[in-house]
């Protein structure tokens, strides 16, 4: 639920700021799937289920090598997530609630692995396999940034920030990518194909691609001393430079995710 004029975002009735400060991402996943936060026992069972699905099929990993070395990671994500439907035939029937739930579990578990491998491929570095002794956010950071030539120490602060980042982006009502997933699903397409379509929509510069534009802008600004110059450029109506990452079409008053 969103009330843009009041700056309210609720997930299944829970305020996003409360979830970001008190919950873990997998608890929020459970909430979105089942309608309420898990008990301690249900939380551990859910973690175990997700952990069982973190690895990718080895044949699927070979798919990465078919992409150009400079392929955009989102292009790889669209291809590999869509390809899941070619490997997991036991969870492609959208009309079967058990298959739908298994597909959800696989997507939650495998997308961090797929994303980390897409990043590694773009760098020409070896893939790093998941470790189920790590938390969800820890595992993603480990797969993304560790290398086999040296030990990798994960900062607890960065882990917490990443987990919170996942929570803040877990759901945002009827946005472009969600609408795309629902539209694809209305045709009876399997869940993996639908999510791949949603990722393609997320790639667009008016949606998730705006996050990429922010990173590019920060790289362009470079040093702190350059900030005043770029603020002046943003204020100049004749300058094509745009200040990315500020403002929102829905939240006219306050973005509750800025917590």
Automatic annotation (TrEMBL):
Annotated GO MF terms: acyltransferase activity, acyl groups converted into alkyl on transfer
InterPro entries: Citrate_synth-like_lrg_a-sub, Citrate_synth-like_sm_a-sub, Citrate_synthase, Citrate_synthase_AS, Citrate_synthase_sf
Gene3D superfamilies given in the database record: Citrate Synthase, domain 1, Cytochrome P450-Terp, domain 2
Keyword Mitochondrion: no
Keyword Transferase in annotation: yes
Keywords: Transferase
Protein family according to the UniProt entry: Belongs to the citrate synthase family.
Protein name: Uncharacterized protein
Naturally occurring in which organism (per UniProt): marine metagenome
